[in-house]
Structures are given as structure tokens and as C-alpha cells.
Amino acid sequence: MYDVTLRNFYCRLHTHAVQEPFVIATHRQLSVLHPIHKLLVPHYKDTMFINAFARQVLVNSDGLLEQTHFQSKYAMELSSYIYKEWNFLEQALPANLIKRGVAIEDARSTHGLKLLIEDYPFAVDGLEIWSTIKTWVTNYCSLYYKDDSAIQNDVELQSWWKEVREKGHADKKNETWWPKLQNFNELVETCTTIIWISSALHAAVNFGQYPYGGFIPNRPTISRRHMPEVGSVEYKELESKPEKAYLKIINSMLQTLLGVSLIEILSRHASDEVYLGQRASIEWTSDKAAVELFEYFGKEVSEVESRIIERNKDVNLKNRSGPVNVPYTLLLPSSSEGLTGRGIPNSISI
């Protein structure tokens, strides 16, 4: 119960909420002709809309989250504590895996990391997606920034980064971990992290909500009673009729209806979804070199998908399907419309 409810607040904060300052600063400080604007804007599609809608019905006072999660009126207070620990650099997948103790740096290993749990689907698939995004960002940025001085002297770029740190994430403006954005590597890592958060990270934590939590007894979000004391009537009922007693403890029928409806909606792909490796318009840039690089990126994303599918067929990788034989598909880049349990949209749009 604690795990599933904390996930909802933690993951919303680390995707929806933290991205807003980047979206706003990009539109305020970068011209639509700026190469970084063209790189990042496709990953902002509908994010501000869905966040505004969530503030009206989801995370508002007495909203759906407060009604269906045991944190109740303390839900947003919990989010504020989570934000106090937020670190932009730790949202990069390699840094996140190291922080969580499931990987160590190893220059000899693929992606520069050695996984301490080799059969860890999210990490294995995620690192392939991360590296593919980073290669695309590196190649794209190299078209426009030939040396570090070009980055340092880009007034729009520096104004963008200043607004992100000092206005967008003002509570964090004095943190020493912020990249200075003074060299090519910092620019690439920053843009890669922003795209990762908007696409693969959000996909991994969002589109599995209904497949994994749609059966509320499996992942309840509320406890309506304390654990019964030994010898009490409630304890005897728990011993003799555990299922009946359990249903009296977890979400009520109304809370279950609200909760299931909510995650069913949040786990769906829209009909106009644009996925990683795709662009909504072929005219997103007039730079033919950038278009060619993006087409190559799209092919690389498709190849990653093929490798994930093959790994899911490997019977020796026990964690990819588990004892119930449900394969890990959350980081398969493509998807159709609806409730699919797969697909990486370009942006946080639901």
C-alpha cells in the first residue's frame, strides 16, 4: 500500500512537476528558430495542459488523489518533502541506477555501467533507450555547437538555463549540483535528461498503472481500519474469513471505482500520440543534416524495440516475464491507441 501510493506522488513529482520549469523557460527564452528549442519542444506536447487539468481534479484539495490515497490531505505535503530531495542530475538514468545501488560505473561495460542485477528489465531496456537518445542529442548538438565557447556565448541558451535554475526551480537555485552549461558535455547531458524524463521515464512509471494496479486488492491505496488486536471480533473474522475481512480494510467500493477509473484513463494512449523517434510534422526543421540524423535516430529506436522483444522471448531471463508469464513491455517504444501497457510517447501528455 505504501509502495503504490508513494509511487504516485514520487513519480508525478519526478516527471510532471519538475518538467514545467523547462517547458516554460524554453518558450520564454529560446526562439522557435533556436536549435535547442527545436530539439526539446516535441517533448513538451500537452504537458502544461495535462498538469493544469491535474491541478483542477487530481491533486487539488479534496481531489481524486486525496479521496483515493491514504495520505489524504497530507498528499501535497508529502510531495513537497520529495521535492526537497530532488536532484536534476540524479534523474539521468545511469546516475539514478547508481544512486539506488543497482549499478556501478564500469568503463569496460556497455553504457559505462555494470548492472548488479543483470536481469533487471527496466535497467537493461532503459539504458538502451538512454544511450540511443544521448547519441541523437550528441549528433544533433554537434551540428550547431563546434566548441564550448559557442555554448558560453549563446545568449538565448544561457538565459534559458538561468531561468530554469533561478525562477523555475527557485527553491533549488543555490544547489551546487546544477550543471553550469558551459561546455558541450553538459549541454548534451542536460538535454538528454530532459528528453529521458519526458519520454521513457514517464512511460515506465505511468503506462503500467492499470495492468499492475487495476485489480485493487492487489495494490490497495487505502486502509480503512487498523490491524485488529488479538482476541478481538475483527481478529477472529480475519482468521476465519480472511477475504471478507480484507475487503473491509482496503478501499471502499466508491474509492475502488474512482481509483480504477483514474488509473485506467491515465494508462491509455491518445489517438494523436507521437512516439519516441517520430515527429508530428516532417517540417519540424529545414536543416537537412538534422533531418537525416533524426531519421537515423528513429531507426535506432526501432532496433532497440526489436532487441527488447527478443529478450522477452528468452526463457533464461526469468525476471522479464516472472512466474505469471507477463512480459515487461513498458519500454517498447511503439504502441497503438488505447490501453496497451507499452509505448514511449515523446512527451508527458497524460
Automatic annotation (TrEMBL):
Report the Gene3D superfamilies cross-referenced here: Lipoxygenase-1, Domain 5
Is Lipid biosynthesis tagged as a keyword?
Answer: yes
Every copy of the Lipoxygenase domain together lies at: 1-350
Q: Which family is this protein grouped under?
A: Belongs to the lipoxygenase family.
What Pfam families does this protein map onto? Lipoxygenase
Which InterPro entries does the UniProt record give? LipOase, LipOase_C, LipOase_C_sf, LipOase_CS
| SUPFAM superfamilies for the chain | Lipoxigenase
What Gene Ontology molecular function terms does this protein carry? metal ion binding; oxidoreductase activity, acting on single donors with incorporation of molecular oxygen, incorporation of two atoms of oxygen
Q: Write the protein's name.
A: Lipoxygenase domain-containing protein
| PANTHER family in UniProt | LIPOXYGENASE (PTHR11771)
Which BP terms does GO give this entry?
Answer: fatty acid biosynthetic process; lipid oxidation; oxylipin biosynthetic process
Q: Which UniProt keywords apply?
A: Dioxygenase, Fatty acid biosynthesis, Fatty acid metabolism, Iron, Lipid biosynthesis, Lipid metabolism, Metal-binding, Oxidoreductase, Oxylipin biosynthesis
